[in-house]
UniProtKB/TrEMBL annotation:
Domain YCII-related intervals: 13-82
InterPro entries reported in the protein's UniProt record: Dimeric_a/b-barrel, YCII
Species annotation: Marininema mesophilum
Family: Belongs to the YciI family.
A Pfam family of this chain: YCII
Entry protein name: YCII-related domain-containing protein
Domain of life: Bacteria
Length: 90
């Protein structure tokens, strides 16, 4: 399993507020299904990030593009494979 970081940059604050509930429900379900390592928003209001666990970049992109924030144009997606340093997270 590989790790991918999805940066969700703010595009539209109104849409972000409108679809926040759907976005959070999606993330909660993905977390329960074991596809998410961590997620949260940036304190400066510029967006947030989701750390996905997937076999391939395409699989991770599929998870990220299914997020209501991305599907409905509230946020812009930038996703990268991440090599987490072993032992960095306790």
């Amino acid at each position: 399993m590989k790790t991918y970081v999805a940066f969700l940059s703010m595009l539209d604050e109104e849409k972000s507020a409108q679809f926040r509930g759907e976005h959070l429900a999606y993330l909660e379900q993905m977390n329960k299904d074991g596809h998410i390592f961590a997620y949260g928003r940036f304190q400066d209001g510029s967006g947030g990030m989701v750390i996905y666990q997937a076999e391939t970049l395409d699989e991770a992109k599929g998870y990220a593009t299914a997020d209501p924030f991305i599907k409905k144009g509230a946020r812009k997606l930038d996703i990268k494979e991440w090599a987490m340093t072993p032992g960095a997270v306790q």
